[in-house]
Task: structure prediction
Amino acid sequence: MSSIERLKPNEPRTPVSPQLALRVAILGSIALVMFGIIFFRLWYLQVLSGEQYVQQAQANDQRNLPIAAPRGEILDRTGTPIVTSNVTNAVQILPSALPASVKEEAATYQAAVAQAGGEYALAKERLKAFEEDLRNSKRHATASQRAELAALERQARLRHVPIPPLPRSAVKLRHLYDRLAPVIGLSPRQIDERVIAGIVVLPYAPVTVKTDAGAAALTLLAERHNDFPGVRQEQVSIRHYPYGELAAQVLGYVGQVGTEQLKQAAFRGVQQGTVVGQEGLEYFYDRYLRGKPGARPVQVNAFGEAEPTKLGIVPPKAGHSLRLSLDLGLEQEGEKGLREGIAIARAGGKPANGAAYMAMDPRNGAILATGSYPSFNPNVFAKPLTPSQWEALIGVNEAGGGPLFNRATQGAYPTGSTFKPITAMAALEAGVITPGEAFGGGSCIEAGKEKFCNSGHTDYGPRDLVEALKVSSDTYFFQTGERANSHGNIIQNMAHRLGVGQETGIDLPKEFPGVVPDPEWRAKRDREEEECERAKHVSSCGYVAEIRPWSVGDDMQLAVGQGDLLTDPLQMAVAYSTLANAYMHEGHGTVVRPHLGMEIDDSKGGLVQSLSSQPAGYVHLNYSNLSLVMEGIHDAASQPGGTSFEVWRGWNQTQHPVYGKTGTAQHTGKVDQSWYMCYIADPTHPIVITVTVEQGGFGAETAAPIARLIASKWFNQPEKFVAGSSKTL
Amino acid sequence: MTSTAMSPIEVPDETPVHGARTLRLPLDPLLTLATIGLGICSIVTLRVATRKFVPGQPRYYVDRQATYLIVGLVLMVVLSRVDYSRLRHLMYGIYGALMLSILAVLALGHKTALGAQRAIEFPLFSFQASELGKVLLILALSAFVVNRSRRLRDLDTTARVMLVALVPAMLVIAQPDLGSGLVYMAIAFMLLFVAGTSWRQLTALVALVAVSGAFVLVAAPAAGVHVLKPYQMERLTAFLHPSSDPKKKGAYQQEESKVAIGAGQKTGRGVNSTQIKGNYVPEDDTDFIFAAVGEQYGFVGAALVLSLYALLIWRTLRILTMAKDLFGSLVAAGVVAMLMFQVFVSVGMSVGIMPITGVTLPLMSYGGSSVITTLLAVGLLQSIYVQAGASQAMKGRVYRY
Result:
């Protein structure tokens, strides 16, 4: 016991004055109140709202690094993979190797890009509004308005934001890049650009700077990993197109999902950084192919450094595979045929700068093979593209479109005489012509001030329908068009019924709807041209060649597939398939919906979903009329004097009767465009083939022989390129 | 001598007999318990919070803090053996040392990355003069008040006491160390309060502080004069509008601190304390260490630490009343001011009810200057306690024998 305690009861120690006692009491009370407040505050924070703060803390530090899901394969109709996912090595830089200055720079760059994007969108909007105002004002633009328009147009260009160079302070990183660059065959600047671009997309994830580095590079990196802190090798899955350019526009390509794409419904729920289809089937069937990325949870600290946690890894779910109606063998033959035809056309002095074909099952629209020339190798998209590579792909300097452009589904062409069966069908159904009536003699037809002539001013003499189709008499069809003009839009209506001039509904993005001109369309374009000329104060906006009302000449041109008609091999394949289909069913045909996808399989090959294709519509044609048209084009391919008779010489017409029509579309200032359409009957595997070669000459010369090559492959016949000599349009 | 409420009690200059000394405890047991308890809490808390500060040396900070605590405790024991009342005569020397050390920091100090100049770097530790200055100011100012104890009601005394504290306070605020400067002013006010300055003058002082505070925070910035640095302003006002702009640093710090404490819930997150481990709460080893306590050990841990502070403050107030002389009472009052201000501001800002002024949490926050200063202050308390006991014991002996 201490003396103090002993003394306490009876002895007041140092006398404490009442004033001091009061003040100390006040102090004690203040302390008590403060402790009370803090205790209540703690109770409120920790006990009453603790849950909410736990969530906030977790949101702070938990991030999921995605584990890419293996993308589903694309298979041909027999199950042969034509697009696969390859596992390859990637050299990656870990975010921990990057100093804060680099991350700040990335953030600045990202903000600059966003700003440039915003300014661009704004400027475009302003430009659009200004143009609209000008158009609505219905008066000629003043000089100042024109100057403003030009200024707005200048502003409405996407500003390129350069990736900033490495900050001066990042000495260690600079040295790392300098050491790494020669090993993986890049420049330090390229590494920097890829790193910045990478962390902008996914700030906590390792950045891939090089895929498919050579074995020597990998060995070096592995052996001397101490010299390359923060650099690691990782197995990654990359899309592989083993057949290169084959059907490239149809298959499409893949790339990391873009910021704009994330806003689209098609990419709802896709995480940033996910590789998705950007074009073609890869884009159209992306939701089946992409699978579901897994997640590797990491804890991120305030400096953005990640470390693994004990939380479970969510494994990725592999994408489904897509089985196509395409036949790999036929596809390869088509590719070969196009090249052969182009080579021969070029040997004959024609530019033959572009070509496309489409092979379809006329019963259901299943596309058996299709291709477009020039093509590209989708494997180039596995690595970042240089601007010049990209410009070459989109064909900046090519009027006809670059390799990315699918001429089979997006081309916009007049078809020449291949349109004649549609004209014939329309005229017969409308009663404008009768089958037995022979007319169209002479080498030219005069209508108004204009003169319409046969190719080479040939005089076929008066012919009946079947014969006119066989020899492709333009004068016959000019007259048909002339007659049709007074009966309204009968040709246009038939074209639309058969599937021309509107989207076919194919399972590919960016389909071209096409144009089948009629008086209403003409009037609308004239109006647009007038308004545009007034607004921009230019002599021509190029909507129409000249402002004039619809004339009989327009119908005459349309009757032979010329004039303002714009369509593509796909739509023509649909039209011929529909005719063939109706022919098979005594006039009751389905308008087929062309499609490539047949079924979705899981990664083990089990069926997930079958992609049924409903017909786009139905047609009921008079069977005897239809038979006459089919007879005409069968004769054209099988009877001496027929336009493609020579091309099919030696073909077993009894076993596989060919119903084919040549076409030669004329373009001012260019070599003619070669066309061929055919339907080849077979009880089990009929086929419709459409081929076009830009600046390829006459239809019988280039396109028809290519069609025969494809047909030979399909029916296991000896392949032979037989050029015809028919000089019909 | 009796004209004032509190008279310094002149202690006879004789040592108590040997036998009496052995009867009493050498140190205040509860005060010692609170001190050591807080030291242990500090080590336990810092173990996680500073684990990654020095790569490869997870115990670097903990080892250093333990060393500071041990050195401080030794100093405390030594100081408890010294009769504090002798220090009264060294008033000018102590005040001179205070001013010299603060000026030395301004002249020789090490500039930090943010431009603050608060410490002089020594081979083993960096000496933060403003921390030690707290104890020096308590001693010098207490002695000054004692010397003027007969004229405590004079306005002149009040003004001089405040002025004596204001000079070092302004120098420290210029470093800038706003927190310590405010502690100096709190000490001066508390000394006047305990010494017995009239209520009227105290009220006037409070009003003056309120007016000048309003001037510095509202009127001067509006007129374009910035007395405080922008970040100081921002921190001071952050707690008033917590979610106004989470990107601003002051508000961010406080918000993250609240998240950390809240996420601790009842019993804490232990090793899963991601706010602290992930460094989301800046300065979670010093000014915001209470956030680290709150997240790791929850309401239970926070309440334990607060209880230890309550014990510490209670014992200090008790020693204030026990002191054998006015000087002792005033020194204890100064220590109470220092402890209360730092505890309530540091904890208050961690839980989001006080402005961010950058004061350390006594004994808990990492840092040699802070820990040793606090332990020196506790040493003075122990000395006051021992001396009070000694004088009492002596009187008791007179009574009894």
Notes: The first strand of chain B starts at residue 110 and ends at 111. Strands of chain B lie at 110-111, 117-121, 126-127. Chain B touches chain A through 62 residues (CB under 8 Å).
